TrEMBL record:
SMART domains: LRR_SD22, LRR_TYP. Residues 338-492 form the Disease resistance R13L4/SHOC-2-like LRR domain. Keywords: Cell membrane, Glycoprotein, Leucine-rich repeat, Membrane, Receptor, Repeat, Signal, Transmembrane, Transmembrane helix. One of its GO terms (cellular component) is plasma membrane. This is Uncharacterized protein. It comes from Rubus argutus (Southern blackberry). SUPFAM superfamilies: L domain-like. It is a single-pass type I membrane protein.
Length: 976
């Protein structure tokens, strides 16, 4: 810089000013620059990092205090803060992670007091032990940065530390000695660290930290919580989180010294009672989470805990306790601050108390999954801050009060059973009018269902204009009335729509489909009488589940990737759809496709192999023809295949043997030819239902069929099978020892199966009752073939069998004696064969037998008597056996003609016998009823009372399914 010098005093002044300005400007640039040594240290640190998203791109030049993530001390210009936390938490997360190595050059930053490297993915296995030399640190956050291994004890040197967060899933610490030196610590989080080896010592070390305010040790595998502690030093503690440690402990007394405690989280441990009996000392507590703690006995009475804002007791079992007592605990408080109360799945019973209305600040109330009954109390209208009310999966059977309509903050109202697989159990009564909704201006999600279809009725004025715009609507089994149709049209922001069996019988209006199509995810309008054209001329970019089954939709079936790109399940069964199945259906990423009972014609698309995730295909009861696609086994994911009652010809495709997860096959009622392939027995081990009834199949029944250990319905009737019945039947484990557990897989597919039993067609379903019903039907049917030889003795092993039909074959020899072992048999048909000899007496042991047919054989001798057989008094079930005699046919010839006196005596005896027999009959009927009743309904009842245990199962299943769907959707999003 050149400065012009002059002697003029004025210009001297200017020069002085310019000089000052120069110095000032110079100084201010040095204010922004940092120490060269620290700058180089940072560059070396950057050098070793990988930074895919360019987060450190500002780390160039000299002004390192201005680099992103760096702050310097305003006075000394030394680097004080390094904040490289990854704050991205969406799908860009991975890319935004810093990785690579952590260079010890950081040690040059002598004044570093704040270091945050959390939520990144460093390649280090261990937390670098040189961090222990950064002794100026007050704040250190290394959480979720993919560290593992032993926490370096050198961290104990950081005696200025106020804040330490090391939450990571794979770190561990043998003992926490190092912790005792951190005497200024206020915040400590070791979440996820494996502290198993510290035994009870962890508490001793924590007790050396008198300044501690917040302690988080969730998922630390802490084995134990000591009952005794000599003196409690950390009495200033505000937050204590020991959740998810699965430790088994009683509430220790020293807890009650933590009088400042504001937040206590003990969820997911095993807490042995009694607990909170002395709760009067935890007066400051605002948040208490004891969910999933296997608490038993009385609901805690939280006397004196007037500051409580949130209480979570979900998943405990307060055996049939009432909520009334519990509420009285709050009545001593001059005010109450409760904002969130979760008592779900607690085994509570009784009516909801009016006193609920005193929790005036409540925003979140979850009482779901309990056995509450009765009506919602009128006082619910007092909870003017309520945002979420969940009464789902309860036994409520009363009315819904009009006062509910006053909850103007309510966003989410759940009065349904919608989370369960089984049908609605809740029994709301009465009429819903505009008053019930009048001020629900914030409502976004509304769910309601009833068990009996007419018990809850929506009755709105025709011109009613709802005050809300719903995102989710779920109505099942309620009558919505004609005006509903109009207010549905006003709901244009719907994302999840379920209106199942609601008595909508009109056309629903094509413009409504158009209004919601661009955002809807779930569309279930099943079991209505909706008329109209199949609405798929619009695009449904987000639709994943479509269920329009049991309606009157007509027109040609059209569905393709271009108008519904993320569709996963489609159920259009029981409509009037026509035309062919377009080949484009195979481009879709479907899990489930059901087109049962329509009027579809033509061939099934041959491009089947393009499906990669298909689980269920049900095209039964249509007019489809041609060959079954030979490529059908290529997507090996297939579990349920139902193509029955069509006109398919050809052989059972060979490729099907790839589908090792197949559980159900029904190809009955077609024109299939060829043999029954032996690989069905060897390659499809999961098969539970195999129905090939009414085809043109021929040849022998392969021995390998006996390998189907899980099969419980086997129907090969009405074909041309010849040869003998395999003798290995005792290997059919499910029929011999019972169906093993509930379903091995899970899909929310409402399956329907018809079996021929008791001389008629019986329809079974897992939708209308419970999935247990179908899985407990057991049937074995080889009727109307050309089978010869004897009925193998081994049939007597199938003691779980409910229905056995071998009629209309050429079977010879005697009925096996062991038939009497089939004590659960309800239907037995051996008619139209050449069976000979006597009817085994053991047949009278079959106490549940309600249908028997032995007609048209060569059976001879006396018909056995006693027990259930006495009720089967229709002579036609024995006709066509000329040598049979005895009840209900004519008496046997050997029976003497009695004299008059013996008639009298016999008469009396007869009466006694009769009475005895009647008694026997009643006993067997009652016994039958009891066993039958408990067999079927008992499972349901027991299931209800064990609901608690089951919910976790369902939850897990649900989580898995949600995860699967989330993954799927994620994948799709990436694809498009
Ligand atoms: C340094 O200055 C900035 C703004 O000039 C201010 O926000 C910050 O609090 C100051 N830091 C210290 C430690 O004084
Ligand atoms: C936790 O540490 C203990 C002892 O070091 C070890 O036996 C256990 O397997 C570890 N737990 C897990 C989940 O790694
Ligand atoms: C904390 O209490 C223990 C006894 O449990 C005692 O030995 C120790 O000195 C106390 N520590 C502090 C820092 O007060």
């Amino acid at each position: 810089m050149e400065i012009y010098v002059s002697c003029n005093p004025f210009s001297r002044l200017i020069v002085r000013f310019l000089l000052l300005l120069y110095l000032f400007l110079n100084a201010s640039t040095s204010v922004n620059s940092c120490m060269e040594e620290e700058r180089r240290a940072l560059l070396a640190f950057k050098q070793d990092l990988t930074d895919r998203s360019g987060r450190l791109s500002s780390w160039v030049g000299h002004e390192c205090c201005r680099w992103r993530g760096i702050s310097c001390n305003n006075r000394t210009r030394r680097v004080a803060k390094l904040d490289l936390r990854n704050t991205i938490d969406d799908e860009e997360y991975e890319r935004s992670c810093l990785g690579g190595k952590l260079n010890p050059s950081l040690l040059a930053l002598k004044h570093l007091s704040y270091l945050d490297l959390s939520s990144n993915k460093f390649e280090e296995v261990h937390i670098p032990s040189f961090f222990g030399q950064l002794t100026s640190l007050r704040y250190l956050n290394l959480s979720y940065a993919s560290f593992g291994g032993e926490i370096p004890p050198s961290l104990g040197n950081l005696s200025n530390l106020n804040y330490l967060d090391l939450a990571n899933y794979d770190v561990s610490s043998k003992n926490l000695n190092w912790l005792s030196h951190l005497s200024s610590l206020k915040y400590l989080n070791l979440g996820g660290a494996n502290l198993t080896s510290t035994g009870v010592g962890w508490l001793h070390h924590v007790n050396m930290l008198p300044t501690l305010l917040e302690l988080y040790l969730p998922q630390c595998q802490i084995p134990n919580l000591p009952l005794a502690l000599q003196s409690v030093n950390f009495t200033s503690l505000l937050v204590l989180d020991l959740s998810s440690n699965d430790m088994n402990f009683s509430f220790p007394n020293w807890f009650f010294n933590l009088t400042s405690l504001v937040e206590l989280d003990l969820r997911q441990n095993v807490l042995r009672g009694p607990f909170l009996n002395n709760s009067t000392s935890l007066r400051s507590l605002e948040h208490l989470d004891l969910s999933n703690c296997r608490l038993q006995g009385q609901l805690p009475k939280l006397v004196g805990m007037c500051e409580l804002k949130s209480l979570n007791l979900e998943y405990n079992y307060f055996g049939a306790a009432e909520i009334q007592e519990f509420m009285s605990g709050f009545s001593n408080c001059s005010y109450n601050r409760m904002e969130s109360l979760d008592l779900s799945a607690c085994g509570l019973v009784g009516e909801l108390p009016t006193s609920l209305g005193m929790l005036k600040r409540l925003q979140h109330l979850d009482l779901s999954r309990n056995s509450f009954w009765g009506s919602i109390p009128e006082s619910i209208g007092n909870l003017s801050s309520l945002k979420r009310l969940d009464l789902s999966q309860t036994s409520m059977n009363g009315s819904i009060p009009e006062s509910l309509g006053q909850l103007s903050q309510l966003v989410d109202l759940d009065l349904s059973d919608s989370e369960t697989v089984s049908p609605c159990e809740i029994q709301w009564q009465g009429i819903l009018t505009e008053a019930h909704f009048i001020n629900l201006t914030s409502l976004e999600s509304f769910k309601v269902c009833t068990k009996r279809p007419l018990s809850l009725i929506f009755n709105m004025a025709y011109d009613w204009d709802p005050p809300f715009k719903l995102h989710t609507i779920y109505i099942e089994n309620c009558r919505v009335g004609p005006a509903f149709h109009r207010w549905l049209q006003s709901q244009t922001q719907l994302v999840d729509v379920t209106l199942r069996n609601t008595g909508i019988w009109d056309t629903i209006g094509e413009d409504w489909f158009m209004k919601i199509s661009s955002q809807v995810h779930t569309l279930d309008l099943s079991y209505n009488q909706i008329r109209g054209k199949f609405p798929f001329q619009y695009e449904f970019p987000y639709l994943t589940n479509l269920d329009l089954s049991y309606n009157q939709f007509e027109g040609t079936f059209q569905l393709s990737l271009s108008n519904a790109p993320v569709l996963l399940t489609v159920d259009l069964s029981d409509n009037h759809l026509e035309g062919t199945i377009p080949p484009s259906i195979c481009d879709m990423l479907l899990y489930t496709l059901s087109l049962r009972n329509n009027q579809l014609t033509g061939e099934f698309p041959q491009a089947w192999s393009f499906w990669s995730n298909i689980n269920v295909v049900d095209v039964s009861h249509n007019n489809l023809s041609g060959y079954i696609p030979s490529s059908m086994g290529i997507p090996s994911s297939l579990k349920v295949l139902k193509m029955n009652n069509n006109n398919f010809g050809g052989e059972i495709p060979f490729s099907l043997q790839n589908c090792s997860g197949l559980t159900n096959i029904d190809l009955g009622g077609n024109k299939l030819t060829g043999k029954l392939p032996s690989w069905i027995g060897s390659k499809l081990p999961e098969l539970q239902i195999l129905q090939l009834r009414s085809n043109l199949l021929s040849g022998h029944i392969p021995q390998q069929l006996c390998n189907l250990r899980k099969v419980h319905i086997l129907d090969l009737g009405c074909n041309n099978f010849s040869g003998t019945i395999p003798t290995c039947l005792n290997n059919l484990t499910s029929l011999a020892y019972g169906v093993q557990g509930p379903w091995s897989g899970y899909f929310s597919y409402s399956e329907q199966t018809t079996i021929i039993s008791k001389g008629t067609e019986l329809e079974y379903s897992n939708a209308n009752l419970d999935l247990w019903i179908l899985t407990h039907v057991t049937s074995f049917d080889l009727s109307s073939n050309n089978l010869e030889g004897e009925i193998p003795e081994e049939i007597g092993s199938l003691i779980e069998l409910g229905s056995l039909n071998l009629s209309r074959n050429q079977l010879t020899e005697k009925i096996p004696l062991k038939i009497g072992n089939l004590t659960r048999l309800e239907s037995l048909d051996l008619s139209h064969n050449h069976l000979s000899g006597e009817i085994p007496h053991s047949i009278s042991f079959l106490n549940f037998l309600s249908h028997l047919n032995l007609s048209y054989n060569n059976l001879s001798g006396r018909i056995p008597t006693g027990n259930q057989l006495q009720t089967l008094d229709d002579p036609s079930i024995y006709e066509g056996n000329p040598s049979l005699c005895g009840f209900p046919l004519q008496k046997c010839s050997g029976d003497d003609m009695p004299t008059e006196q013996t008639i009298l005596a016999e008469d009396n005896k007869d009466h006694e016998d009769d009475d005895n027999e009647k008694l026997g009959f009643y006993i067997s009927v009652v016994l039958g009823f009891v066993i039958g009743f408990w067999g079927v309904c008992g499972t349901l009842l027991v299931k209800k009372s064990w609901m608690h245990a089951y919910f976790q199962l369902f939850d897990n299943i649900k989580d898995k399914v949600t995860l699967a769907i989330a993954l799927k959707v994620g994948r799709l999003q990436r694809r498009y």
